Amino acid sequence: MDRYYDQCVELANKLDPENIIVAQRLKRLPTIIGKLQRFKTMRLANMQDIAGIRIIVEDMKQLRKIEREILGWENLHKVSNYLDGGPKPSGYRGKHFIMKDGDRLVEIQLRTQLQHLWATSVETVDIYRGSTMKTSGDNTYWHEFFYQTSSVFAFVENTVPGPRYNNLNIEDARNDLRKTIFVHNIYDTLEAIRLTNLVVENEKIRQAYYIVINLDYAAKNCQVLDFKESEYDSAVSAYTRLERMSTGQNMVVLVAVNNIRNLQEIYPNYFMNLKDFSDIIRYILEKSNV
């Protein structure tokens, strides 16, 4: 992984060192176990993304340049194309290159900033909902929102949108997205989730293991209850009580603080960047010439 990471950094420095981000990570053990449980026929030796490198570029023009370079590298084993062939069912877009040295596999993920912002926003919302939208079926309005947003972004970047929009245009996708955002109060929810990051930075809260957060959309503030690791049952009881009292103007979440810290480690450059995500959606929906 270190060798390919250095190769990716060298490529980034050659093309645009100021705007191309290169990061590496080893998949964490709970994530590895979860993937093996989801895919019953998968063997650990065949898991392609235990060692991963991520390249984030400014736009599709830059992505194509990087892609042409990587396609010429030795030991390229496989390419997973979630751009030209359309996104994953979740709406995920990007290109993955699997490099193979002997029996060792390294995955290089290539995304534009827009694709990366979408993907990290899914990760963030998943943390708070306790869901796994990127890896499993999800029939809620959140899946609709991210699927529609992905398709709008695809039109903006001139790549293939989700299958539902193959014979439609960007205005059709925009109209669907506007409706979902309005009906389900999406902007306020994203803002409330973003505010939670400020709560987690509180020193007292950082000592907790579980926190129950009652997010008030209208007031844009939150009530926080903190619990030790041994107080899981109490945390669940508090969560259940507040959830039953919910009026629809608030959202109650139960979070393991360590999950948020892990997310910070995985995405240090884009952690909790839901404001940028909301802002770019607003801009695209308001500008007819985008």
Description:
The chain is globular, with a radius of gyration of 20 Å. 48% of the residues lie in helices and 19% in strands. The protein has 3 domains: 2-112, Beta Polymerase, domain 2 (2-Layer Sandwich), CATH 3.30.460.10; 115-185 and 275-286, no CATH class; 194-271, no CATH class. Helix 4 runs antiparallel to helix 5 (141-156) and helix 5 (141-156) packs antiparallel against helix 6. It is built from 11 helices and 8 strands. It has a 5-stranded mixed sheet with strand order 1-2-5-4-3. The protein has a 3-stranded antiparallel sheet with strand order 7-6-8, sandwiched between helices. It has helices at residues 2-15, 29-38, 60-71, 113-129, 141-156, 170-183, 186-200, 203-206, 232-244, 257-266, 274-286; strands at 21-26, 51-57, 76-81, 95-101, 104-112, 210-216, 221-227, 250-256. By secondary structure, it is α+β, with helices and mostly antiparallel strands. Mean pLDDT is 82; it is low at 262-271. A hairpin with a 2-residue loop joins strand 4 and strand 5.
Radius of gyration (CA) equals 20 Å
In CATH terms, the superfamily of the largest domain is Beta Polymerase, domain 2
CATH topology heading of the largest domain: Beta Polymerase, domain 2
Chain-averaged pLDDT: 82
Task: List the secondary-structure elements in sequence, H or E.
Answer: HEHEHEEEHHHHHEEHEHH
